[in-house]
């Protein structure tokens, strides 16, 4: 398997264009199941996760064409008819967002059989809220042998769904199903992440009637059919925050373009508090740090607009070299500190207790072999390695490839000493 080798110490100078958001793109791709006309998604990232979902959609009947457009890479998805309403365990296990095909399949065909995703490294991640939402829209749901059997032979009907707590995936799933239900649906305590607004914009461009996305109450007036559309995927706020933190960690001056500051306000505020210079522009931001040691600051992850859990690992990497002790509270997932022992291999001083990590800043880090455990954890190791003395090798790079497009190229263009070592095909322990 491939590894990434980084020799730390180089300051970063240059510009990084941000790609389309992975976590939006994969839900928008699922929306293509809702119409028999083509959905053209522009600003599409090319990632392992989007390729994976494309393969699943092809099995369900979608024609998928990847092409270059005037504004970068595009994907056209055309589901003339659903040829199968079945998503197997093998497919859903490998990428849990595949589960989100369930709602569109029921909405379009009246039935579906989709595997339950199971847990993952960052937490148990049940799908009870997804299933309750689909039941509230009139689907009958049975669980047997690890599969969800869903039926709505006369179509879905609008309903009121009050989520007991905020779930990005369940809100998106309810929206994907309710757009073709008969009558009005109200989603209360809905997630407000920018990806929700992007999904609503895309569905509305396809003829849906969704309002209030981005607030905690979303209203959906069901329509009989949706049509084709062209929709640009929003900028990836997690990639944006990741490169902002990489620039702060390595030092230097990096401009991030094709993105939005307001998507990561809660991170930028914390970075400024720690001593990083942030200049906001219409199409992104410039991140600057010139040598001075950063101050330790505390963070707590929360649903949007709070501090994103998907940036917690990267922020922890920054805090390993800060002056003082940083307390990092993780409130979204129960097991999202697996990067801490790997950062400790580079010399970081971190203790974890339940949902809280204490990071006592050290004077320097030293390169070492480390292992990626999930997507965001793996990039936190890359960030730490940029400032560590000597060479760090990150193994299990397939985690990174799921969600970061051309990472070595983007960081390398700014002067980072980073390269991929092609694997020999042998499994890593
Ligand atoms: C999305 O996951 C993202 N994934 C995650 O990013 C992100 O960390 C998360 O939202 C929070 O922002 C995608 O968009 C593909 P949730 P999701 O439902 O939708 C619990 C990454 O690295 N819960 O908001 O699965 C759940 O266990 C990934 O790109 C239930 O209990 O997150 C968690 O504790 C990792 N029952 C909390 O809610 C349910 O039915 C929030 O999860 C659903 C969720």
Briefly, what is this?
This protein has 429 residues and is an alpha/beta fold. It is built from 14 helices and 24 strands. The model has no long low-confidence stretch (mean pLDDT 96).
Arrangement of strands in the largest sheet: 22-23-1-24
Residue share in helix? 25-40%
CATH architectural designation of the largest domain: Alpha-beta prism
Largest sheet data: 4 strands, mixed
* CATH topology (fold) name of the largest domain: UDP-n-acetylglucosamine1-carboxyvinyl-transferase, Chain
Unreliable residue runs: none
Shape: globular
Q: Count up the helices.
A: 14
CATH superfamily of the largest domain: Enolpyruvate transferase domain
**CATH class division of the largest domain:** Alpha Beta
Report Rg.
22 Å
Number of domains: 2
């Amino acid at each position: 398997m491939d590894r990434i080798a980084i020799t730390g110490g180089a300051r970063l100078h240059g510009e990084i264009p941000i790609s389309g958001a992975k976590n939006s793109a994969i839900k928008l791709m699922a929306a293509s199941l809702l119409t028999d006309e083509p959905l053209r998604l522009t600003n599409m990232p090319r990632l392992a996760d989007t390729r994976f979902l494309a393969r699943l959609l092809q099995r369900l009947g979608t024609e998928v064409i990847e092409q270059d457009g005037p504004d970068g890479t595009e994907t056209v998805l055309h589901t003339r008819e659903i040829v199968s309403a079945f998503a197997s365990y093998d497919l859903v296990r490998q990428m849990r967002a595949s589960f989100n095909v369930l709602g569109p399949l029921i909405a379009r065909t009246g039935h579906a059989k989709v595997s339950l995703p199971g847990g993952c490294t960052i937490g148990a991640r049940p799908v009870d809220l997804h299933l309750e939402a689909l039941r509230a829209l009139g689907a009958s749901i049975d669980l047997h042998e690890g599969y969800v059997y869903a039926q709505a032979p006369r179509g879905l009907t609008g309903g009121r769904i009050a989520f007991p707590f905020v779930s990005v995936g369940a809100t998106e799933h309810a929206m994907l199903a309710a757009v073709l239900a008969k009558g009005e649906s109200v989603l209360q305590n809905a997630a407000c992440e920018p990806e929700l607004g992007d999904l609503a914009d895309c569905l509305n461009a396809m003829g849906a009637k969704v309002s209030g996305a981005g607030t905690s109450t979303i209203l959906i007036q069901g329509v009989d059919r949706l049509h084709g559309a062209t929709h640009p995927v929003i900028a990836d706020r997690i990639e944006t925050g990741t490169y902002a933190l990489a620039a702060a960690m390595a030092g230097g001056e990096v401009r991030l373009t094709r993105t939005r500051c307001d998507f990561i306000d809660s991170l930028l505020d914390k970075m400024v508090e720690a001593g990083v210079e942030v200049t906001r522009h219409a199409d992104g931001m410039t991140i600057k740090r010139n040598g001075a040691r950063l101050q330790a600051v505390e963070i707590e992850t929360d649903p949007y607009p709070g501090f994103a859990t998907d940036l917690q690992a990267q922020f922890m990497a920054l805090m390993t070299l800060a002056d003082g002790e940083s307390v990092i509270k993780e409130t979204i997932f129960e097991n999202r500190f697996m990067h801490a022992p790997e950062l400790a291999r580079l010399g970081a001083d971190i203790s974890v207790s339940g949902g809280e990590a204490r990071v006592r800043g050290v004077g320097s880090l030293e390169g070492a072999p480390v292992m990626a455990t999930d997507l965001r954890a793996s990039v936190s190791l890359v960030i730490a390695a940029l400032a560590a003395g000597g060479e760090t090798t990150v193994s299990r790079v397939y985690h990174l490839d799921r969600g970061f497009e051309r990472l070595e190229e983007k960081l390398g263009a700014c002067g980072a000493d980073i390269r991929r070592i092609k694997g020999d095909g042998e499994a890593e322990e």
